[in-house]
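Lab notebook page, bench 4
Experiment: in silico fold of construct C2
Operator: M.H.
Input chain length: 290 residues
Purpose: comparison with the prior construct
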Amino acid sequence: MVSLIATCWTIAGDVRPDWPDNISRWRLEDRIEAAARAGYAGVGFWLGDLMHWRENGGDYTALRAQLSDAGLHIVELEYLADWFAKGEVRERSDATRAELFRAADALGARHVKVMPPFGGQGWDVGYLAEQFAALCTDAARHDLLMALEMIPFSDLPDLHSALDMVMRAAAPNGGLLIDIWHVVRSGGSVGDVAQVPARYIKAAELCDADRAIHGPITEDTMRHRRLCGEGAFDLGGFVAALGQAGYDGPYGVEILSDAVRTLPLAEAASRSFDSTAAIFHGDAESMGER
């Protein structure tokens, strides 16, 4: 049985993570309801949304109860950046880490998305591995997996470099989040995923896209992803490769798309779920432990 997660940006509405104002206009409670009605087994939360919600009277206990009542048994949190930095940047990252862990404890989260370094600052891979291992040790106290996302325009731009770092860290609860978009746009093949040891695959994500990149890669990733089955990606091959690697965890559905952002909430949830469920023989009722 495969479980699908409605990642935060798929059901966030007309906002982008790289916008200065990136707080969703849709209530968390409504997003939970929409994800559950669509058939999802889990949901993703952006820390900015959670903090905004709490500042306006939101209560984690009530939110966890709603998740349970809705049958959403997987919670994903995003994201932690600069976990390797120093000085004031690191202080801000550590504050974010504490907030993420607080939310994880309250909501029973499965994993946290971890961002790689950006900007070509030349961080030593041994140092990154050391810091990632320490991060994972902290996360283990909260029963959390830490899933590093390989991103082609980061300083860990492909599966080889990202896997090398997490293997050096050798943390039982630390590994990769493997997103098909990032694999393809890095120049890799979906078949490459089959060579990743299962212990280092902590999460996976699905979307589709055209074969050609539209504009700068950073805009392509934010604006031009497609619902599964509407692009040129070998989604079936990707899922098969992950299965060959031994991965049996959930799949996040992450559709960063101008078109999907403007859909009504219920439609964004149902269309993203149904199109992804079709990859797994189209049987929506078999998705997740409902």
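Observations: Residues 4-286 form a domain with the TIM Barrel fold (CATH 3.20.20.150). The first strand starts at residue 4 and ends at 6.
Next step: discuss at group meeting.
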